[in-house]
Amino acid sequence: MSKRSNSRTSIRTYLTLAVAVFALSLMLATVSLQAASVVRVTLERAMHADLGDTIEVPITLENDSMDFSLSGFDLFILYDTVGMTFMDAVAGSLLTECEWEYFNVADDPSGLIRLVGVGDIIGGSHYPTCFLEGTSGTLATLSFAVTCDPAFMCYIFPYRFYWADCGDNSFATLNGDTLLVSREVWDWDETPIQEDDTFPTIKGVPDSCLIGGSPGKAPVRMVDYRDGHVDIICADSIDARGDIDLNGVAYQIADWVLFANYFLAGLSAFSIDQSLQTYVTDTNDDDVYLTVRDFVYLQRVIIGDALPYPKPGDSLPQDTAVFIQDMAAHTVSLDYPDSLAAAFMIFSGEIFPEFVGTDLVAAYDTLIIPRRILLLSATLEKYSFGAGLVLTYTGEGQLLTVEVADYENQLIHSRIEQVGGEPLCGDADGNGVVNIGDVAYLIAYIFAAGSAPTAAADVDCDNMVNISDVVYLISFIFAAGPAPCSGCPW
To answer: Per residue in 151-184, pLDDT tens?
Structure first.
């Protein structure tokens, strides 16, 4: 990972005179082959990637000589796991068009990917139509998911060829009579990397790998490797906070409407550039995005009640806002000593708000389930609501999450309590709310003989409580996954 910086080191290891003479004899035996051709392999760059993007990284080959054919390869690649997550790799057009018989990918969570391709395997179903001589194109394409963390805007995350032993990043000629290994290695910033004599390394195979075997059979330095990188877009290259429609003018009514649509439809409301539009929603400048507090502050700036450079709210949370859902009466009430400006609710089922408190409106999309409801003022003027009945509704559904904001940009916690009905699905610890505490409770039960959860812990509806329920809850809480029990037949 780099933020516009680079460091290079070089180490020279001297071999004994006898070994050097022997190595020279091997190189002389193959010098004519080296002079004839050079193979170039490149990890292509991904420039100006957005946060959260899925990028495609082609691995390209240039072998413009007909002097020899390539019948197999073993590529080993290192990437930065902080900024990227490996998704998949597929064979490139060079392999598919030549009908190579074998292509395999293996990856390791530490950030290593191995790609192996073989043109003809013993007992294969057919014989390849070509073996990569005098050709250029794509060997394979890697897919990575780019980090969503805005802290890494303007960072560069390299991906490089990597050597753990002499056979890594090598190509075999037809019949396997010659192994082609690295000649030159160029880093992601186009600077040459000097080889050394150590493993592991990003500097190519050391000279010691050329020693061994009979003359003419030792590995030959004939492949140039070029590393690549993903360049994440810089924060100063995008519009200022509050410009959610990215038209160059912040804090307009159109920005308010677009932000409101996010609460009703999720990120699909941001059709221009999701990562950039997400970044500029931090209108209250607390480094947290897509919150009801941001939405309320945006509204205050629009009506002239606040400046676009907010004074931070109290860092300590105020009293907890308790939302009480009466499952039998189909009501939601608020228990809170002060006033709120807005609330964002998610219900597990298909509910239809019928009554909301004075001067409030419940905005929602009738096509989206779980139901997402933004509770806000009927006008753009200053508004508030406090303890008492918030809304009534028809239909069936449980209040799963609620997020609130007041008019003073304070941090306010919220809690849900249910009465008059079945336990809240996902509420494994029975405290009336679904959150990370339920995940911890389930993990303790499954792996540490903890207390048994409530029946509502079977969030994936398979009639069992196990690790799949933990994964399901984590996805719901942190990754906007489906709501607990949303697919259950009951």
So the answer is: 888 889 999 999 999 889 999 888 667 889 999 9
CATH number of the domain bearing residue 262: 1.10.1330
Q: What is the pTM of this model?
A: 0.48
Q: Strands, DSSP E only, in 227-359? A: 228-232, 318-326, 331-335, 342-347, 350-356
Q: Which two tokens stand for residue 301?
A: 């700036």
Please, what is the end-to-end C-alpha distance for the chain in angstroms? Answer: 49
Same domain, 164 and 210: yes
Q: Which of 302, 318, 348 is the endpoint of a domain?
A: 302
In this structure, is residue 84 part of a structural domain? yes
Last residue of a domain, one of 197, 214, 232: 232
pLDDT per position as a tens digit, 409-452: 888 888 888 888 766 788 887 766 777 888 888 888 887 777 77
Do 76 and 206 share a structural domain? yes
Determine how β-strand 399-405 pairs with β-strand 84-91: unpaired
Query: Using CA atoms, how far apart are residues 82 and 76, in angstroms rounded to an integer?
Result: 19
- Cα 356 from Cα 333, distance rounded (Å): 10
What is the length of the chain?
490
Query: Residue 469 is encoded by which pair of tokens?
Result: 């329920």
Q: Are residues 49 and 143 in the same domain?
A: yes
For the record, the structure tokens of 273 come out as 């550039």
